[in-house]
Amino acid sequence: MKSENHFDVIIIGAGASGLMCAQAAGKRGRNVLLLEHSKEAGTKILVSGGGKCNFTNLSVDKENYLSHNPHFVTSALRRFTQHDFIKLIEEYGVKYEEREHGRLFCRGSAKDVLNLLLKECGAAGVKIQTGCSVKRIEKEKNFCVKTNAGDFISESLVIATGGLSMPESGATDLGYKVAIQFGIRVIKQFPGLVPFVLKEVKDFKSLSGISVNASVSVNGRSFKDAVLFTHRGLSGPAILQASNYWHKGDEIIVNFLPDIDLEEQFALWQREKPRSTVKNLLSTLLPGRLVAYLSSGLDTDRPISQRGKKDIKKIAEVFSGWSVRPVETEGYSKAEVTKGGVDTNELSSRTFESKKVKGLYFIGEVLDVTGWLGGYNLQWAWSSGYCAGQYV
Ligand SMILES: Cc1cc2nc3c(=O)[nH]c(=O)nc-3n(C[C@H](O)[C@H](O)[C@H](O)COP(=O)(O)OP(=O)(O)OC[C@H]3O[C@@H](n4cnc5c(N)ncnc54)[C@H](O)[C@@H]3O)c2cc1C
User: Fold this and answer.
1) Start-to-end C-alpha separation, the chain
2) How far is the CA of 171 from the centre of ligand 1 (A)?
3) Which of 69, 85, 131, 225 is the most exposed place for a label (fewest CB within 10 A)?
4) 191 CA to middle of ligand 1, Å?
């Protein structure tokens, strides 16, 4: 008979992946303790998707993830798919809706997703201990997790502490420290899905609040979605997506009219509206403040009939290929995810167990796996948590 502080499995981090793993292991009859240092479980789930939790995407593929080991995600994404999670959502009668790009959101609130995970954990007999700070982890035959609430022993230890974004939600670097303690490689972290700061752009503040549909390209990747001008730079889904592929010093290219061949459009206007100014014509397609800003130095107040082919080409190039070099990102306080993390080459892609340390598992965002915007990061938390839960 085991003592009351001895468990089959201890999971550190009661976020998306930790809760998923706990219920899956509990259902297998494993005696599971889930440790969380915040007052409540699942804080990040509650703020996800603007409080509506974009819990998955109708189309999920390894191409939607960044990792130094790009094939690592394939196995788990196949074994616990978006349809498996949708099934769970439907079993609980959670109402949801599809938005653009196949993104699925709760109709009610993100609380619906957290509540169903807590119920699943409850039904599986998982013990959740919140407000519990981990002081030290030791390993002999078993793991010993020393905390402010006492020492806990387990055969399997799962690290599900997430990434560094949103420190106010309880993010810490404990997961990386545990990896390093056990000699497991960690890849340098950067904020991901994060707005850009454009300090060098003069008069940029005048554009604050403008939102347009555009295509943003960086390092050979392009994303078509909304771009939002902030008082410090650029945000919006297309920018957040591009930020995952951006490194300091890289330029980004914004096509403000991705669905229009501007040179052809200008030729049409020259025939049909020769007396209109270029600025007025462009303002029928884009917000006037943005047109005025991008027009600087292009002399767009003259009628379109007076503009030659060379001029037109130059104007078209600015509106469909605006190039800007962000000075930095807004950092972890505004980032949705963390790029980098525990090197997945160190783990089995089937069990998530460390190849070096028997019984030690890493799941979710603490790994060097970063999803696109659109429900991919939570799907990774569900898939990795569920799969590890079959083995711990
Ligand atoms: C504002 C915002 C909105 C987002 N919206 C979406 C979205 O709509 N769709 C989507 O797919 N993704 C979204 N994400 C990303 C998604 O929330 C994360 O990728 C996902 O929650 C990661 O799951 P995880 O279990 O790895 O980590 P988390 O869910 O972050 O859970 C980690 C848990 O570990 C706990 N923890 C940390 N350190 C310790 C410690 N030392 N001791 C004990 N416990 C600890 C934390 O308090 C937390 O509860 C969003 C992120 C943010 C910040």
Assistant:
1) 20
2) 7
3) 131
4) 13
Please check whether residue 242 is in contact with residue 368, taking contact to mean a CB–CB distance below 8 angstroms.
no
The strand pairing partners of 11, in sequence order, are 34, 158
The whole-angstrom separation of Cα 6 and Cα 246 is 45
Cα 231 to averaged position of ligand 1 atoms, centre (Å): 27
**44-101 pLDDT tens trace:** 999 999 999 999 999 999 999 999 999 999 999 999 999 999 999 999 999 999 999 9
Ordered alpha helix ranges (H), 257-368: 262-272, 278-282, 288-294, 309-320
Give the nearest ligand 1 atom to 133 CA. 42
**Residues 323-380 pLDDT 10s:** 999 999 999 999 999 999 999 999 999 999 999 999 999 999 999 999 999 999 999 9
Could you tell me if the CB of 191 is within 6 A of ligand 1? no
Q: Is the pTM of this model over 0.90?
A: yes
Over the stretch 265-307, which tens digit does the pLDDT of each residue have? 999 999 999 999 999 999 999 999 999 999 988 888 889 988 8
CA of 15 to the centre of ligand 1 (A): 6
Domain boundaries, the chain: 6-191+337-389, 195-330
Instruction: Report domain 6-191+337-389's class.
Output: alpha beta
Residue 18 CB–ligand 1 contact under 6 Å = yes
Q: Tell me if the domain spanning 195-330 has CATH number 3.40.50.720.
A: no
| CB of 291 shorter than 6 A to ligand 1 | no
Rounded CA separation 223/65 (Å): 14
Nearest CA owner, ligand 1 atom 23? 16
